From TrEMBL:
One of its GO terms (biological process) is L-amino acid transport. It comes from Actinoplanes octamycinicus. SUPFAM superfamilies: P-loop containing nucleoside triphosphate hydrolases (SSF52540). Keywords: Amino-acid transport, ATP-binding, Nucleotide-binding, Transport. GO terms for molecular function: ATP binding; ATP hydrolysis activity; branched-chain amino acid transmembrane transporter activity. This is Branched-chain amino acid transport system ATP-binding protein. Belongs to the ABC transporter superfamily. SMART domains: AAA. InterPro entries: AAA+_ATPase, ABC_branched_ATPase_LivF/BraG, ABC_transporter-like_ATP-bd, ABC_transporter-like_CS, BCAA_Transport_ATP-bd_LivF, P-loop_NTPase. Residues 3-235 form the ABC transporter domain. Transmembrane segments: none annotated.
Amino acid sequence: MLLELKDVTLLYGRIQALHGISLTVGEGEIVALIGANGAGKTTTMKAISGLRPVAQGSVLFDGDDITKMRADLRVVRGVSQSPEGRGIFPGMTVRENLEMGAYTRRNRAEINEDMDRVFTLFPRLKEREKQVGGTMSGGEQQMLAVGRALMSRPKLLLLDEPSMGLAPMLIQQIFDIIVEINQQGTTVLLVEQNAQQALSRAHRAYVLETGRIVKEGTGQDLLTDPAVKDAYLGVA
Ligand code: ATP
């Protein structure tokens, strides 16, 4: 397993956001986390990227226990998060934002290679290379956030709501790109409100409810599960 969470609990002060989350992500997989608002999806991502300490349980990555590892060192190890709400650097150009994604790396040739790869995946970013990030459209900023996360050449790419705020055409496109990134060898863990798209593209998925995993299965199984359909797919 590339990633394994064992019985992870996480607190925000006195609020317990995660109640013993256990999940795995195998090398080469796309795994989706779905669930209602406040279910704990973003919090689970934070436990993995190290943006928030876990109270109990463990996070194993690529053979190591990273439960207490600093967030920046996890990036060096190969975990990269594209945050919810984009979180790009608004005052920097597109190229500078992408450079920031590679700040832990030193090999210029490889960085340039990855920059080219990001520009191939997202031609719009190439066209807007010198534009200031904050003036890009919402969808373009979303692409920039994903591109920046790729610039650390991660083994595991964590995507928090990559389709948020995107027009229907762009939603298809961003999911196509996620599949392409995965086929090029990057493992993906995806948090999504858009359960239909997420489940149809993911190999496996977990359903979260109030900080607990209540269901898991292949994307296809969950797509046809009556309870999942009812609660998350908007069809009875
Ligand atoms: P959404 O789909 O709305 O983004 P989510 O499943 O990602 O939801 P989380 O953001 O993980 O949900 O939140 C899980 C729970 O933890 C929620 O009840 C939320 O209010 C709470 N929470 C999140 N961040 C904090 C914080 N910084 N302080 C206190 N409570 C928090």
